[in-house]
Write the structure tokens for this entry.
Amino acid sequence: MRLAQHMAIASERVTATAIDATEFPELARAYQVSGVPKIVINDRVELLGAYPEPQFLEAVLRGATDPAGDQ
Amino acid sequence: MPILQPRDEDAVRTEFARIAGPVKLVVFSQELVAGDLCRQNEQLIREVAALSDQISVEVLNPAIDKERAQAYGIEDVPATVVEGARDYGVRFLGVPAGYEFSNLIDSIIAVSSGEAALTDDTKASLAALAGDVDIKVFSTPT
């Protein structure tokens, strides 16, 4: 969560929500959380585990790019 | 009975020496939906806020304060928004205990200054974002 929240602070475009998977089992099921931490970016890019800043950023940028081009 | 032990409070107070400005913790609670968890969350947030005179707490009920909840994008409870000079988009869904507790403390300090602890390269890439990015981080308390 730390990197995500600092990215939210750095950019008005980014929001970061920490979700307790045990308190919100329906959300965890909807996002197929089988391990933690699981990171979901714009509902289309997923990471499992902790990643260093450059790899996390790469995933965020990938998530920000809509393949349909309608962002 | 307090959630934070005296040694936790001492450690957090030491961290909070770095708070650079006012921080507001906006708590969303709804007794009828998740009474126990909402009470626990509210208590934890108030105990944390009591450790610095720079932190204020506002408690809202999404069923009553619908417009505020919508503006913050809050649909579930308990939820907490960590706000500094502006709403930076930092939210906790569930009680930020265990592993997430240190992130709560870190986010309070970070929003108090608005300074993100990221490399210049990361900041430059984020500044060029053309669309909104929603990051969900699922974790467990332990």
Q: What stands out?
A: Chain B has a mean pLDDT of 96. Residues 31-49 of chain B form the longest helix (19 residues). Helices of chain B lie at 6-16, 31-49, 66-72, 99-113, 120-127.
